Amino acid sequence: MKRLQKxxxxxxxxxxxxxxxxxxxxxxxxxxEIERYREMLQDGNPADLxxxxxxxxxxxxxGPKNASLEKCDLGKGPGVVKGAYAELPRYFADVDAVxxxxxxxVHCMVTLQGFEKAEVIKKPFSGAGQKATDLEALxxxxxxESRGMPVNxxxxxxxxxxxxxxGERTFHYRGGPFxxxxxxxxxxxxxxxxxxxxxxxxxxxxxxxxxxxxPAYRVSQGALRTMQWRMNDCFRQQRxxxxxxxxxxxxxxxxxxxxxxxxxxxxxPAIKR
Length: 273
What we know:
Elements: H1 2-42, H2 47-59, E1 90-92, E2 97-99, H3 101-111, H4 117-120, H5 134-144, H6 158-172, H7 182-186, E3 191-193, E4 196-198, H8 204-211, E5 216-218, E6 223-225, H9 227-237, H10 248-260, E7 270-272
Parallel strand pairs: 5-7
Antiparallel strand pairs: 1-2, 3-4, 5-6
Signal peptide: 1-26
InterPro entries: Cyt_c-like_dom, Cyt_c-like_dom_sf, SoxA
Enzyme class: transferase
């Protein structure tokens, strides 16, 4: 009888151990499969089609001024696209402000092509099952031209430094009905939501991996999503007021993330779940 009781106790102990380990094992296996799935898709990234559309739009003469964007200055001189995204956001003297890639593209569409800004940013993101918007396509083309380039956002001008500092404060600002901040999900290790690991974006390594893979093609949405979309969606999930496209707050946050990610090599458009 005592022997049976001892065996039962051992069996129960082993059973508890297995149950305790199961979630961790399942999570590890699931994450590995997700990464393998992304690798399989990367060689035929659907975002490539959007990038091609963006390149065509960049070179096409359009708008009231019948001009292309080939003289657009993204920070490395008029017409230079190669490597520009990896150094954005940055200060632009012609507007006396820090701009990210998307707000700068809008600026060029307005100044070079004659489009109305309100019309350009009226619908910056495509909906489910819709074709990529012009802004999504243009952002995809511009970021593709920085693939493999090291992230190196300048922090020389006082307004660049101020944008970083505001971005850091915004990242840690708590508010909304859930009293959330960006840091609630993205500061500290071992956090995840459902099957998605949440990187600690206050540290260079995780910040590099995150920053360098946006814009990205979202498999679940069948669309290329930009960094402005990422900021907007994070605010939505926190139940904060929706960010205006190209707002100062969005640019400040991107600046904070980009400066933290210094040295990482751009690998975008990437594949996301």
